[in-house]
Structures are given as structure tokens and as C-alpha cells.
Design brief:
The chain is of the alpha+beta class and 453 residues long. It has helices spanning 10-19, 24-31, 35-42, 50-60, 64-67, 72-83, 95-104, 106-122, 142-152, 158-171, 178-190, 199-202, 224-239, 241-250, 256-275, 278-287, 292-299, 303-311; strands at residues 193-197, 207-210, 215-219, 324-328, 334-338, 367-373, 379-389, 399-408, 427-428. The radius of gyration is 23 Å and the shape is globular.
Length: 453
Amino acid sequence: MAAERKLFIGHKLRRLRREEGLTQAQMAHDLGISAAYLNLIEHNQRPITVNVLLRLGDAFGVNIQEFALDDSEAQSGRLREVLSDPLFAELDLTRQDLREAVERVPMVADALQLLYARFQAGNSGQPDAATVPGTLLGRPSEVDELLDALEDRHNHFPQLETAAEALSNDAGLRQSHLEADLSRHLAEAHGHVVRTMPARVMETAAFRHDLHGKRLIFNELAPPESRVFALGLTVAELSLRDEMLALVEAMGIRQPSSAAMMLTALKSYFAAAVMMPYARFSEAALETRHDLDILQARFGASFEQVVHRLTSLQRPGTRAVPFFMLRMDAAGNVSKRFSAGGFSISRYGGTCPAWSVVNAGQHPGNLGVDKVQLPDGGTFLSVAKSIRKGVPQAGRSQRRLTVVLGCSYEFAEQVVYADGLDAQEPGPIGTNCRLCPRPRCEHRAFPASTAIR
């Protein structure tokens, strides 16, 4: 079990106090501490303690598990990406400057990111919001807002983990018979029946949920992992919708389309937690040293499902390896990302062409392993595989995507794919060309920014 970390989240405490309209003396009184001690916590000169967190929950009704998540790393990474634009080259900013901005004036940091999103939209060559793809003027894209919200919470939702455990116990789910057991639960608890239809009827859809007809309909070509996942999604829709809507509202997501996408993401999270229960999956991950093939076989899951689940093992106090992941198409467009462990995935400008995972799609089915180093000296292990998405159909090609899982090389002993790599020199890469300072890279496509030291 990992040692508990000291929590320096003073910026979140200060934001809560200001939202409540309280002085330091007033909040300190409510928390049973001195104003001087509260001031030290707010300025990250003292960590927040468990007792203070519990009093916060009692006095202000905050979810202490979510409040305890430190989002400053993800926030400063996003701000660093914005301020790395050549527009800001004369500011001579350091990484420490950015972290202090996020911790001391988080609303200003948020405002700067929104302003940059508006600038990006204005420079896209599109005249108005109706014709700006992926961006609403002055607001982040729906996908960015969704992914940022997931990163801020370390892709971990304790309420959904608890709900998945409760379902498993109440419905008597068996790991080796999940499809049958979930089908039975749908029938007994919700009056739903499960049917399978010919591929010519379903076409490219793996499944359809007929809410009014109370039917979950599968394509005959849908693989077992897709069927179990769809059953989990349906249970979430029928039994947890109100709870998940409350979660979305608590996240403060502004755009209706982003809120709808987040609701879908939470259903998917629950389905994955049902397929790969937290305790058993995390234990198996440690036992096998995160052998993806074994985890797929034991839990009847796909490569992407296992990779995504590994990023969610972030229970406070007992965190596993902080994995990052990304999913991209052949053109380098990132459709899923989660930054962690010091590896920041860019929202603007694509990925690094020198990173071998970019070419993983040229070798379908093969697992690509790489040891890489960022310009700041951070060394990482990455594992990539090209996968097919969707149901196969004659005359139509399946969408091919590359899924990448990685972590800081300091965790290499806990990952089987790092065996034999210690003596290998890491390959130099960057976040992308615009953010990379390497002057003589033969893969460079754009000039480097020198805005951030």
C-alpha cells in the first residue's frame, strides 16, 4: 500500500471560503482552528489534515473525497500549454510561476485559458460560433471540457465505485458469468429483456437500448466484452441516472453538450467498475505487474477497457501507479487523453512525431514498448497498441485507433513491460513541436516556443 501523501490544496480551500463569502476568522471558527493556521493552509505552508477535511464535510457539505484530490498539476499543465505560445515568449515565465498562479489565483488562470480558447477560435479562419468546429467562441470545446473535468478528479469517482460494489453484492454477480448475471438482473430489477439481432439489421451498431420497449438488443457480431459493457451501461442508465446527473452538476460543467458527454462517461465508468471491480482488479494489476494480456483474459475485457481502468485506480491514500493514457487516430487526432505522473498530453498541436507510438498503427495487433525522455529530463515508459473500433461489416473498414498507456519510469519495477529496458537510453521526445525546445530534432514540423523555462 502506498504511503499517504500530504495534501497541499490551499487554493481549493481559499476558493471555497470566498464562494461562501466568509472571512478567514469566520471559516476558522467553523472549522475549530485558528485563523493563523487557516492562513497557513490556504497558502500551502501547511498540509490540510484529515480532521480539517472531516470538519469541512460537516460544516460546508463538501464531498471530502473529491475535495482532497489535488488538481493543481493538471491545471498548471494546461496553463503551461497556453503560455507556451510564442505570443508570450517575452514574459520569461517559469514552471513554478505557473503553479503559483494556479494555487493562488485559480480563477485568473481559468480566465486566461478561456481567453486563449477564444483566440484559437478567432484564428481558425471561421467567422462565428456557428462555423467554428469543436469550439464555442470564448469556451473550451465540449471534449476538452469533459477531459479536463476527468483529469481534475484523477479519473476517479468513489460514488460510482461504491455503486458498482453494491450491485455486485446485491445481484450476486460472478466474474466468469457477468453477461448472464447482468441479464438476469436487468430482467428481475428493471423488467428488461436481452435480445440478439442479425448483423444486417443492426448494421454497425454493437447494441441498442430500447428504453420504452424495455429491450437491450445486441448485434450478433458484438464481442463478449462489448456485451457485458453494454449491460453495465444499461444498469447505470436505469438505476443511477439521478446520482450521475448530480455528479455532473457538481462538476460545474457549463456546456449542455459537455454535460451530456460527461453523463455518458460516468455510465462507462460504472460499467468498467462492474466488469473490473476495484479491489480485485487492483490486486491483479499489482500481482501481474500490470500485464495487459493477463488482465484482459482474467476480466474478459478489451485492451482499451483495461488501459482505461488502470488510470482510474486512484483511491486517495492507496493510489496505484499513476498511469497516463491517450487514444488517437491515424491522423494524430487525440480523442481520449488522461495526463498523470508528470506527463502532460497536449490539447493543441498534436503529438510528438519522434515518439514511436505515433507509428503503432502501422503494425496492427503488435504491442509497442518505448522508453522516452521529455526535455525537462522526465523519463517515461509507454506501451501502445493499434486496435479496431466498431462491429466488422462486409464492405466497410473498421476504424483503427492507437491506444497508449504510460507512466513515469520511476515505477518501472512495477510494470512487466519495462523488463530489460534499464540499460537502454531513453529516446528524446517532446509534448509536441510547438512546446518542445529541442533545436536539432529531425522530426520537427513547427518552430519551438521559448515562452516557458
